[in-house]
């Protein structure tokens, strides 16, 4: 069974930093690209970042470019999102999701999400 | 950027009804269009990938179709567990935009 478990979300002040983690199991993590998607309270889904299986290709939404850094540790089946210079508008639930490149790249499995609240 | 215009933003339907949700892309994008369901308080789940293919375990009352830049999700014989929010997403070109979402409510 594919399982993705996010952690690290908490309350942080504007301008602060945070590191989110996503622990993967039930599949060969090193063979799959991964992404982060967020959802502000009561709003829709918002793609944040994607990283290829070997970390060779990394992409960000313009809204987080220069502030967020995605990385992965294939030896430990883990995905990370380093967030700095956080803004109030970064508040929301952050989901990690697996990308299936064999079928036009949908996010075929998602974690339960971790809540990030940016507030003074 | 590719803009995904999803409609309607909300709709109300009864158990047993058939509903359709549409996403219109601002440019041609092949079939790199996927549909997700999100029940209240839960993570999104993949329903349809590459416009027309059912993800593993998804009931056959869900179907997807495409005509040009218009992508449609159809749900036949609505069940109580189908109520929630639905989103389309394009993965043809960066940034990988989502539609605004459709809230499907019980009438």
Features:
heterodimer, A: 120 residues, mainly beta, seven-stranded mixed sheet, four-stranded antiparallel sheet, 11 strands, 0% helix, 51% strand, B: 107 residues, six-stranded mixed sheet
Uncertain segments of chain A are: none
Tell me, rounded to a whole number, the average pLDDT of chain A: 97
What does the largest sheet of chain B look like? 6 strands, mixed
| Topology order of chain B in helix (H) and strand (E) letters | EEEEEEEEEE
Specify which chain pair forms the largest interface.
A-B, 24 and 27 residues
Which percent range fits the helix content of chain A?
under 10%
Total strands of chain B: 10
Please, could you describe this protein's structure?
The complex is a heterodimer of chains A (120) and B (107). In chain A, strand 7 and strand 8 form a beta hairpin. Chain A contains no helices and 11 strands. Chain A is mainly β and 120 residues long. Chain A is 0% helix and 51% strand. Chain B has no helices and 10 strands. In chain B, strands 2-10-9-4-5-6 form a 6-stranded mixed β-sheet, with no helix packed on it. Chain B is globular and about 35 Å long. The A-B interface holds A 35, 37, 44-47, 50, 59, 61-62, 95, 97, 100, 103-113 and B 30-32, 34, 36, 38, 42-46, 49-50, 53, 55, 85, 87, 89, 91, 94-101.
Short description, anyone?
Chain A is mostly beta strands.
Task: Set out the fold topology.
The complex is a heterodimer of chains A (120) and B (107).
Chain A: E1 3-7, E2 11-12, E3 18-25, E4 33-39, E5 45-51, E6 58-60, E7 68-73, E8 78-83, E9 92-99, E10 107-110, E11 114-118
Parallel strand pairs in A: 2-11
Antiparallel strand pairs in A: 1-3, 3-8, 4-5, 4-9, 5-6, 7-8, 9-10, 9-11
Chain B: E1 4-7, E2 10-13, E3 19-25, E4 33-38, E5 45-49, E6 53-54, E7 62-67, E8 70-75, E9 84-90, E10 102-106
Parallel strand pairs in B: 2-10
Antiparallel strand pairs in B: 1-3, 3-8, 4-5, 4-9, 5-6, 7-8, 9-10
């Amino acid at each position: 069974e594919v399982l993705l478990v996010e952690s690290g979300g908490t309350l942080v002040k504007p301008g602060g930093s945070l590191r989110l983690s996503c622990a993967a199991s039930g599949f060969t993590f090193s063979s799959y690209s991964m992404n982060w998607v967020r959802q502000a309270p009561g709003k829709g889904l918002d793609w944040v970042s994607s990283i290829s299986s070997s970390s060779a290709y990394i992409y960000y939404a313009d809204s987080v470019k220069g502030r967020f850094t995605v990385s992965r540790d294939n030896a430990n089946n883990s995905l990370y999102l380093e967030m700095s210079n956080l803004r109030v508008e970064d508040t929301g639930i952050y989901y990690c999701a697996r990308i299936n490149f064999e079928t036009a790249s949908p996010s075929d499995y998602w974690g339960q999400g971790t809540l990030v609240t940016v507030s003074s | 950027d590719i803009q995904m215009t999803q409609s309607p933003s909300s709709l109300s339907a009864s158990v047993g009804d058939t509903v359709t949700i549409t996403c219109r892309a601002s440019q041609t994008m092949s079939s790199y269009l996927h549909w997700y369901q999100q029940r209240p308080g839960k993570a999104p789940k993949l329903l349809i990938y590459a416009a027309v293919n059912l993800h593993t375990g998804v009931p056959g009352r869900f179907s997807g179709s495409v005509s040009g830049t218009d992508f449609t999700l159809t749900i036949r014989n609505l069940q109580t567990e189908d109520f929630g929010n639905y989103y389309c997403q394009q993965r043809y070109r960066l940034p990988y935009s989502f539609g605004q979402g459709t809230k499907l409510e019980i009438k």
